[in-house]
Design brief:
Layout: E1 11-13, H1 15-26, E2 32-37, H2 48-54, H3 58-66, H4 69-82, E3 85-92, H5 98-112, E4 117-121, E5 137-140, E6 144-150, E7 156-162, H6 165-181, E8 183-184, H7 185-193
Parallel strand pairs: 2-3, 3-4
Antiparallel strand pairs: 1-7, 2-5, 4-8, 5-6, 6-7
Helix pairs in contact: 2-3, 3-5, 5-7
Length: 212
């Protein structure tokens, strides 16, 4: 699964170019968007909820995440108008990292609004990841695929852009297989995330962490 990735040809896009290219093609009749998320430690500078999380203010991070609901609702309404179905698969390692714990609260708001998100336990794909992790990708129908890139500190750093049809079909097939194996978001969240204590974020100021 995903065996063709290492030898495939791509075009490297910086972050602004990646976002512009994705936005342009998103409205071109792609039909569906598949997103596979694998990394466990990222930085989301400029996202107020993440900034509060990074500062150790858990309660404010959750509150700010909830304030984004209307933005997410608008995204889903636009997808519906364009006829674009969304599916997201989030791979989670155990123990759950502080970043993923925070991110799943953000994703919960999206799921509440109708976003189609599943969770996959990383231990369930250890046989697939013997040589390399599954790719971090955003796939727009059968038109284009982006391998999302990050720098060594976990900051978003653009994407590798792929247009080879056979590679895109292979990756979509792999996504479909893993998505079928994924667990419903709410079941996973209620069992594994809702009961966790607020995370300790390395480097965050002390004394800010609230309880929920």
């Amino acid at each position: 699964m995903f065996d063709s990735f290492p030898g495939s040809t791509s075009e490297r896009l910086d972050r602004p170019t990646y976002h512009a290219d994705l936005g342009r093609l998103y409205t071109s009749g792609i039909g569906f968007l598949n997103k596979l998320e694998r990394g466990q430690h990222f930085k989301e500078r400029g996202f107020p909820s993440w900034e509060a999380f990074a500062e150790g203010d858990w309660e404010r991070a959750l509150s700010l995440a909830e304030e984004r609901r209307e933005d997410y609702a608008q995204e889903l309404r636009q997808a519906s108008r364009l006829g674009v179905t969304h599916r997201r698969l989030r791979v989670v390692e155990f123990p759950v990292t502080p970043y993923v714990q925070w991110e799943l609260f953000v994703l919960r708001a999206r799921v509440d609004l109708g976003d189609d998100i599943k969770i996959l336990d990383a231990r369930d794909i250890s046989n697939i990841e013997r040589n390399r992790p599954v790719p971090e990708v955003v796939i727009l129908g059968d038109v284009v695929m982006y391998e999302v890139m990050y720098d060594k500190d976990g900051n978003a750093d653009g994407a590798n852009r792929y247009t080879d049809g056979s590679l895109i079909r292979e990756t979509n097939a792999g996504f479909d297989t893993l998505y079928e194996r994924g667990e419903g978001f709410r079941d996973f969240f209620d069992r594994e995330i809702a009961t966790l204590a607020p995370p300790r974020v390395p480097g965050a100021p002390t004394g800010l962490r609230g309880s929920r």
